[in-house]
Specification:
- This protein has about 170 residues and is α+β, with helices and mostly antiparallel strands.
- Helices cover about 30% and strands about 15% of the residues.
- The strands form 2 sheets. A 4-stranded mixed sheet has the order 2-1-5-6, with helices on one face.
- Strand 3 and strand 4 form a beta hairpin.
């Protein structure tokens, strides 16, 4: 919907912005469709997904779905509650088909959601709780991918701390 509004207002959008590269490959999205059991006719998939501009050039959406989209997505896991603490893990999840990047971030989120001991109001037995609500985390991650201002080729950054997950995104504005 926002993409259509941007088109009418003459603002850059995924569909009206030409891709930086026109010689793109799409092996990853084809495998992704097969893996998700979504029917795909290879010779029509660009037209069916609306990723060609009227001049038959690739638009920015096709670049995001290509095998090498040049947009970085970083996930960093810190040892404690701030960025000055030691780093346990850094992973570069971008520069591939955006759907694969999303899947990778969601998998890391699932791995991080481990049981924690809740010592508040402890009487005899400690209560075990997950680090965060899995559904809320999944929704936040998907929303970041959907609402990032991709026309500016902005990267996403995820930082996990001992007590929270921070997501840096450049959302769209009107």
């Amino acid at each position: 919907m926002l993409d259509n509004l941007n088109k009418r207002n003459g603002l850059p959008s995924l569909s009206n912005t030409e891709a930086m590269g026109q010689d793109l490959t799409f092996d990853q999205i084809i495998v992704y469709y097969v893996f998700k059991d979504i029917p795909l006719i290879k010779r029509f998939f660009k037209r069916n997904l609306g990723i060609l501009m009227p001049n038959s050039k690739n638009n920015l959406l096709v670049q995001l779905l290509s095998d090498d989209n040049s947009i970085t997505i970083r996930f960093t896991l810190f040892n404690d509650k701030c960025k000055t603490s030691a780093i346990y893990f850094v992973s570069e999840l971008g520069c591939i088909c955006l759907l694969y990047s999303l899947d990778k971030v969601l998998k890391i989120g699932k791995l991080l959601n481990v049981l924690q001991a809740d010592e508040l109001n402890r009487v005899v037995k400690c209560k075990e709780v997950l680090l965060f609500n899995a559904e809320v985390c999944r929704e936040a991650i998907v929303n970041v991918f959907v609402h990032n201002r991709w026309t500016d080729l902005n990267s996403l950054m995820f930082c996990a701390y001992s007590n929270r997950l921070e997501i840096l995104s450049y959302g769209d504005h009107l």
